[in-house]
Amino acid sequence: MEKILISIVGPTAIGKTSLSIKLANYFQTEILSADSRQFFKEMQIGTAAPTPSELATAKHHFIHHKSIEDHYSVGTFEKDALQVLDLLFKTHDTAIMVGGSGLYVDAVINGLDHFPEVDSSIRDGLNELYKNEGLEILQEKLKALDPESFNTIARDNPQRVIRALEVSIGSGLPYSSFLNKEKGTRPFKTISIGLTADRDVIYERINLRVDLMLQEGLLEEVKQLIDKKHLNALNTVGYKELFKYFEGEWPLDFAISEIKKNSRRFAKRQLTWFRKKEDILWFDYTTPIENIIETINLKK
Questions:
Q1: Quick one: which residues bind ATP (predicted)?
Q2: pLDDT tier at 181 (50, 70, 90 boundaries)?
Q3: Residues annotated in the binding site for substrate, as ranges?
Q4: Same CATH fold assignment for domains 4-112+183-299 and 120-178
Q5: Using CA atoms, how far apart are residues 292 and 104, in angstroms rounded to an integer?
Q6: Is 120-178 CATH 1.10.20.140?
Q7: What is the pLDDT of residues 102-145, one digit of tens each?
Q8: 76: phi then psi, degrees, rounded to nearest 5
């Protein structure tokens, strides 16, 4: 029987975790997280990671298995996830993957794009430029060298901007020219399920989630991480805004409003990314689980 990976995607706060657990229980299988911030054990509240009771309901992989001190790349995740799936498919016909980090989802389903080796001194120079002059000058360089990447990557993420720049500079070709080449096949079939809602509903759910995180102790979680704020893992919505509050740059009300605004922007980018994928089966977030299961079984 063909092995099936059910991939659940969609914007933040739409209900992906809940759906993944219901499907894992129905298919009697396990869940792989493809949320690149839920990997880190120090970031539990602000990443909306599954709760202890949710984790107890179905076996999860790649939740809080790394420290923010660790370097954990999408390439390493791809390798680790494929190893877990290989083992899981020895005893199960179906596995679940859930997460809103599009690059990590794509890495497992399709494989990563391959880039040329570039001199490490280029990255070192770009990191130094970022440290001394900020992100904007890097964004302008990327816009000049590779307008396509400038318009498509998460350009408020310094790591992504620096990566695109180092490939563009080191190879003499745009970073975007190496994307979407033909890759190897996977020994499993993927059925991709997308959850969505009207924009106003998504934004309302995001605002409520932020309020809930604060009730659950987000301020204290962020306070404990202030001395680590330089780490890339913490350049994340919900953390970077509250660092500014604790350092006296912003009042708390403004920091909270910025978390909500930046979360809404992130959700918009997620939807833009996933809606480019033609094979995703989209459902309103209120769709009964029975309807989703019926569609999955028809696609198997």
A1: 10-17
A2: confident
A3: 12-17
A4: no
A5: 23
A6: yes
A7: 999 999 999 988 888 889 899 999 999 998 999 999 999 999 99
A8: -65, -40
Among 277, 278, 292, 284, CA closest to 102: 277
Listed by start position, the domains of the chain span 4-112+183-299, 120-178
Task: Show the tokens assigned to 55.
Answer: 């984790």
Using DSSP, state whether 87 is helix, strand or coil: helix
Helix ranges (H only) for 172-250 are: 199-216, 218-223, 240-246
Predicted TM-score (pTM) above 0.70? yes
Give the span between the Cα atoms of 290 and 181, in whole angstroms.
37
> Tell me: domain 4-112+183-299, CATH 3.40.50.300, correct?
yes
Q: Which two tokens stand for residue 178?
A: 């190496």
As annotated, the binding site includes 10-17
Distance from C-alpha of 101 to C-alpha of 96, rounded to nearest angstrom:
15
- Among 13, 15, 62, which residue's Cα sits nearest to residue 35? 62
Beta-sheet pairing, 189-196 with 31-33:
unpaired
pLDDT in tens, 5-35: 999 999 999 999 999 999 999 999 999 999 9
HSE (side-chain half, CA atoms, 13 Å) at 84: 22
**Residues of each annotated binding site for ATP:** 10-17
pLDDT digits (tens, 9 = 90+) for 212-268: 999 999 999 999 999 999 998 999 999 999 999 999 999 999 999 999 999 999 999
109 touches 190 (CB < 8 A): yes
